[in-house]
Amino acid sequence: MLIKKLRLQRGWSQEHLSQVSGISVRTIQRIERGQKAGLESLKSLAAVFEIDITSLQPEADMTSNQISSEHSSGLDRSSQLQVTIEEQRAMEYVQGLKAFYGHLATYIIVNIVLLAVNWFITPGYFWVLWVMMGWGIGLASHAVATFEFFNFFDADWEKREIEKRLGRDL
């Protein structure tokens, strides 16, 4: 998540980061999804983002760096390099939103094409309506999950269930 945060702070696409770092787009995608990065990839990313390589390594101890490197604004560099839970949730929400909009665009384009095919091949029977309704149900389900219209299974529900399973508070 840290690589993604740093990339987004600069307004860079994964393709741009790939170009400036010399790392493949696929590798950047894997790193942003949480897979372990090789040392050479970490060195390259640290150089591009102008940060210490230890900031990118999960086993690095951030607390000692935070105390020693405070800026006059009260915020230190290493705390800015950490991804907060709120930032992580926001990034996950935006990814879900992006997936939904992609789904919606695909639904519209494919159904326009199918409508045209239906119109020219069998204008007397609009079979495309069955496709639109079936896929529309899936799209509506995706919208409900993305925009959280009904929060039956929200974070509070998850926490309660985990605590119930553990028999104690988290």
Automatic annotation (TrEMBL):
InterPro entries, alphabetized: 2TM_dom (IPR025698), Cro/C1-type_HTH (IPR001387), Lambda_DNA-bd_dom_sf (IPR010982)
Coiled-coil segments: none
TM regions (residue ranges): 99-121, 127-150
Signal peptide range in chain numbering: none
GO molecular function, one term: DNA binding
UniProt KW Transmembrane keyword: yes
UniProt entry tagged with the keyword Transmembrane: yes
SMART domains the UniProt entry points to: HTH_XRE
CDD domains, sorted: HTH_XRE (cd00093)
Stretches assigned to the HTH cro/C1-type domain: 3-56
UniProt KW keywords: Membrane, Transmembrane, Transmembrane helix
Name the record gives this protein: Helix-turn-helix domain-containing protein
Originating organism: Thalassotalea euphylliae
